[in-house]
Design brief:
It is a single chain. This protein is mainly alpha-helical. The protein has 18 helices and 4 strands.
Length: about 350
């Protein structure tokens, strides 16, 4: 990041840029951004977008985008469109939306709405919702069907055909969809890529559950092998003591509350800040699931354990959960399917 920030700082030093400073906030953000604070650079780009200072917005956001900071690409796309470079801007917003940046999808939804493309607009807004912009979810028309019955049938079979996205069955289905020949309609062909992106993003998120559970079990085995302990632990703070925390988790993972007693049972209790992106409804559902056991349902930690990973993959159905379990033998079970189902 050093070279990028030095270049950006030097650009800020140009008189044509510096003379436009209009507020203490802008001045402070410029100072912090020049001192290698990426968050400040993002806020500075947002400041210029909000104030419709498109020249400066484009300067800062393109620098961010060049380092693969997705919100920078979104701001750059918006700036280009506002500077009457619509083709470049829309192309950049599309590529950023395809990388699951929700604000880019929302911007495209607004553009398509203005262009009178209602179904495509709705799909972009839906993608924005599924990619994490929960305020958009509240305004979406629930149950709106975008695809023909033929296309709906194809997509509904994807969870079975694409349990492994790299499998031959999945690749054959995707080739068929990609060719998009009759009986698929022209509208299906325009909408299917966006619909599929929601499904495959959810599949990517599901992979986190297995990674987290396997990592947790490895930590448990080290504890169990300690001759001074010779027991598994249902205290998530003890189990993850030597595991660096991530900035963000999609799955809450750990043990049933009844098994942990007064100890911390799961990652939500240990790292609440890593779940601030989840809605209160989703968190309530997940907490309820982790409280569903009674103490008699728990393993004796001297002999065994069960750990769970629970998430909400469908923000339009907050009570619908995706649930995985692992036992002390390393067997992973998918207890409840939570993939999005609205097409």
């Amino acid at each position: 990041m050093t070279t990028f920030l030095l270049i950006l700082f030097n650009l800020m030093a140009l008189s044509t840029f510096a003379q436009t400073v209009s507020s203490p906030l802008e001045k402070e953000l410029m100072r912090l951004c020049g001192n290698k604070d990426i968050t400040a650079c993002e806020k500075l780009a947002a400041f210029y977008v909000k104030n419709e200072n498109w020249d400066n917005a484009l300067l800062v956001s393109e620098a961010l985008c060049s380092k693969d900071i997705k919100i920078g690409c979104t701001f750059a796309g918006m700036s280009l469109i506002s500077k009457k470079k619509s083709q470049q801007g829309i192309r950049l917003l599309n590529s950023t939306c395809d990388r699951f940046e929700p604000f880019a999808c929302r911007s495209l939804g607004r553009l398509m709405k203005d262009a009178g493309k209602k179904d495509l607009s709705h799909l972009y807004f839906r993608r924005s919702c599924y990619y994490g912009l929960h305020e958009v979810c509240k305004t979406l028309q629930k149950g709106k069907k975008l695809l023909s019955s033929v296309a709906q049938d194809l997509v509904k079979k994807l969870p079975d055909d694409c349990t492994d996205p790299k499998s031959m069955a999945c690749q054959d289905k995707l080739t068929l969809i990609n060719k998009c020949t009759p009986p698929l309609s022209k509208d299906d062909c325009e909408l299917l890529p966006g619909v599929l992106s929601i499904f495959f993003r959810a599949k990517m998120v599901q992979a986190e559950a297995k990674v987290l559970l396997n990592s947790l079990l490895m930590s448990e085995k080290k504890i169990k092998q300690d001759p001074k302990i010779n027991s598994y632990s249902f205290d998530i703070e003890v189990v993850l003591k030597n595991t660096p925390a991530q900035h963000l988790y999609y799955y809450v993972f750990g043990f049933m509350k009844a098994c942990s007693g007064s100890k911390k049972a799961n990652s939500l209790e240990l790292y609440p800040e890593a779940y601030e992106h989840l809605t209160s409804e989703a968190l309530k559902s997940i907490k309820t699931e982790f409280s569903s056991y009674k103490s008699k349902d728990c393993y004796d930690p001297r002999w065994g354990l069960e750990a769970y990973a629970i998430s909400q993959l469908d923000p339009l159905r907050p009570s619908k959960l995706d649930i995985w379990k692992i036992n002390h033998d390393g067997n992973i079970m998918h207890l409840r399917e939570g993939l999005p189902t609205e097409y």
